[in-house]
Amino acid sequence: MLSLEEISDRLEIQQLLTAYASAIDAGRFDDLDELFTDDAVIDLSATGGPHGPYRGVISWLGETLSRMGAYMHVVSNIDVRLQGDAATARAACLNPLALNAESTAIYLICFWYDDEFARTSDGWRFRSRSQIKCLDKLL
Q1: Per-residue pLDDT tens digits for 89-117
Q2: How many CB atoms lie within 10 A of CB 95?
Q3: Average confidence score pLDDT of the chain
Q4: What is the band of 139 on the pLDDT scale with cuts at 50, 70, 90?
Q5: Cβ–Cβ under 8 Å, residues 97 and 73
Q6: Whole-prediction pTM value?
Q7: Backbone phi and psi for residue 52, each to the nearest 5 degrees, phi listed first
Q8: Residue pair 121/35 in contact by the 8 Å Cβ criterion
Q9: Please, which residues have CB within 8 angstroms of residue 138's CB and are 6 or more apart in sequence?
Q10: Given pLDDT bands bounded at 50, 70 and 90, which one contains residue 138?
């Protein structure tokens, strides 16, 4: 049986994943500062993006997504593994993109997020986030 602390940790981490997707999809990139540790690293190279310190990758992501017609993240199948004040998770992500406002074609990228988390005085935060691609297709 799960303890109340483990239930709370799992829900907080799940909310962190949702907060990331919601901030990205709404274009609220400054909100992401509350979700990552200062030394966090993001690897988007599986889907053509950069790999490096959080702030640089998020800056690139904001610039790139601002040129898209539309996009969203659907995150599911979240598998959290707790280890004291650290945790890992793998979550599936479906990411449909309209490459420009006039396009009727949708580019679908499917990948897993592999994440590492740290419990901080402000709650759980991402220490690293990597994409593992499993599909991309023009629909």
Answers
A1: 999 999 999 988 887 889 899 999 999 99
A2: 20
A3: 94
A4: low
A5: no
A6: 0.92
A7: 170, -165
A8: no
A9: 105, 106, 107, 108
A10: low
The DSSP symbol for 85 reads T
Q: Does the pLDDT of residue 137 top 80, yes or no?
A: no
Q: How do strand 123-138 and strand 36-43 relate by DSSP bridges?
A: parallel
Q: CA-based diameter of the chain, in Å? A: 52
What are the C-alpha distances in Å from 129 to residues 3, 17, 79?
27, 10, 14
Q: Are 22 and 35 in contact (CB under 8 A)?
A: no
Structure tokens at 97: 């993109």
Which residues is 109 bridged to in the sheet? 95, 136
What is the C-alpha to C-alpha distance for residues 15 and 114, in angstroms, rounded to an integer? 16
Residue 63: CB atoms within 10 Å: 10
Q: Which two tokens stand for residue 18?
A: 């949702």
Tokens found for residue 85: 């004040």
Read off the tokens for 36.
Answer: 């990552």
- Distance, in Å, from the CA atom of 124 to the CA atom of 65, rounded to the nearest integer, reads 26
Q: Are strands 74-83 and 86-98 parallel, antiparallel or unpaired?
A: antiparallel
Distance CA 103, CA 60 (A): 23
